[in-house]
Amino acid sequence: MKVLFAAAEGSPFIKTGGLADVIGALPKALLKNGIDARVVLPKYKSIPEEYTASMRYIQHIEVPVGWRQSYCGIFELVFDGVTFYFLDNEYYFGARDGVYGHYDDAERFAFFNRAVLQVLPHIEFQPDIIHSHDWHTGMISPLLDKHYRHDSFYQNIRTIYTIHNLQYQGVFPYEVLGELLGMEHQYFSPDKLEYKGGVSFMKGGIVYSDRVTTVSRTYADEIQTPHFGEGLDGALRWLGDRMTGIVNGIDDKSYNPATDPHLFQRYRSSVTKKQANKAELQRVLGMEENKNTPMIGMVTRLTAQKGLDLLSHVLHELMDDELQLVILGSGDPHYEGFFLDMALRHPDKLSVQIRFDERLARQIYASSDLFLMPSQFEPCGLGQLIAMRYGSIPIVRETGGLNDTVQAYEELTGEGNGFSFTNYNAHDMLYTIRRALSVYHQPEHWKRIVKNAMAGDYSWNESARQYKQLYEEVLSPVYS
Ligand code: ADP
């Protein structure tokens, strides 16, 4: 079985969030299940030279973007056994920094979506399934229907679309339809690509793919309600059992505290070595050095989704408690400013690092005792999984994948791997943090919860099996 993943980011080449982790890890897990899974990504300027230098140039072709033809260079790199294709266009991807957020994202990703389909005959890979991810690749399924189905090469290709975050939809002005995608007005209706007067790439993936998945069961249920549905709950309800939730895993080889080269001290389960990481991080970040002070970590995009309003609301109160908080993230300037200002007032207790930093992220997972994710909504969330793998106990709000992967600790039975609260309420969160701190100070319970968290299976094994089953379903002759 041949499956082509199309996405806008993938570790270790280019990453802004959890999507990259998934694209870097799931194909490897599928490969182990006998599936020839490959990946196609844009060839961004920001991909480190250590990778671009080893890419093999295959050839270049022309890709139609509306009425124009654009250059598309095709490069290939086999990494960790997985074949990655990188599509090059100097103007769209090769000559600018960053991944998203450019004024012409509609054009950049219209090009990429079209290019993914256009290059297939040239890479000698005829996939049985194209598996697209999030809005950046949402137009692949509609473009396949519109421009390629008449060609026998493409006729039997099935499509799967995975929603990693419904909030980002890629909605662009009406003109995009004809001028960039080469589609007629008939595609612009509420049951097709139209969304609030614009053209939605996200909706394209949802409406035109054979199957839709999202990254946890709870999120699959949530997004069918108006509260979480971002205006697409109707379209998602319409899918019925063509939508399923399959929880993400993590690359447990890369995220392994016993071998992670970024840590100050590597460890399996040793509390002492974990504390040594904490002491070193305190020193590096200029915080008060005390290995007994409970440290709470956060590694996150600084956006409203991540529950930062709750934290802002009670941060003054929290700073009265005996704890340290380390925040690594970047994003909304409002949060960046607020947290930086608070860090100036509490230098011993609060460290705020505004940047994207893979090494520091891993050091925080390894050094912290607790990991805070009070999200408004969370499709899956990988932070809590990585944290548990590194023995840092998650404090989460019960939503989406956080709800599916974190079980509240029960002191009576000794079961559970974290702490959680239900309502999006700052004092409920504060209460839960304080409860976690009280358990931290009871060594018997603490040992138990850390053991539970570290013993969990956060690998891709089970979920890869579920994807395989889904692929088999859409390829079966009785599928309709
Ligand atoms: P999302 O995809 O919504 O950003 P996830 O929890 O699913 O959230 O995944 C976030 C991923 O990005 C994790 O691997 C996390 O460690 C990483 N990450 C987030 N912010 C940073 C940062 N500032 N520096 C390094 N890694 C980060």
Brief rundown of the structure:
The chain is an alpha/beta fold and 480 residues long. 37% of the residues lie in helices and 21% in strands. Residues 2-237 form the Starch synthase catalytic domain.
Characterization of the model:
- By secondary structure, the chain is α/β, with parallel strands linked by helices.
- The protein is 37% helix and 21% strand.
- The protein has helices at residues 18-32, 49-52, 90-94, 105-119, 140-148, 175-179, 201-208, 217-222, 233-239, 271-285, 308-318, 333-345, 358-367, 383-389, 400-405, 426-440, 443-455, 461-475, and strands spanning 2-6, 36-42, 56-65, 68-79, 82-88, 129-133, 158-163, 171-172, 194-195, 198-200, 211-214, 243-245, 295-302, 324-331, 350-354, 370-373, 393-397, 419-421.
- The strands form 3 sheets. It has a 9-stranded mixed sheet with strand order 3-4-5-2-1-6-7-11-12, with helices on both faces. The protein has a 6-stranded parallel sheet with strand order 15-14-13-16-17-18, with helices on both faces. Strands 8-10-9 form a 3-stranded antiparallel sheet.
- A hairpin with a 2-residue loop joins β4 and β5 (82-88).
- The longest helix is centred in the first third of the chain and has 15 residues, at 18-32.
- The two termini are 19 Å apart.
- The structure holds adenosine-5'-diphosphate.
- Adenosine-5'-diphosphate is lined by residues 17-19, 21, 299-301, 328-330, 356-358, 361, 380-383, 386.
- Pfam families: Glyco_transf_5, Glycos_transf_1.
- Keywords: Glycogen biosynthesis, Glycosyltransferase, Transferase.
- It catalyses: [(1->4)-alpha-D-glucosyl](n) + ADP-alpha-D-glucose = [(1->4)-alpha-D-glucosyl](n+1) + ADP + H(+).
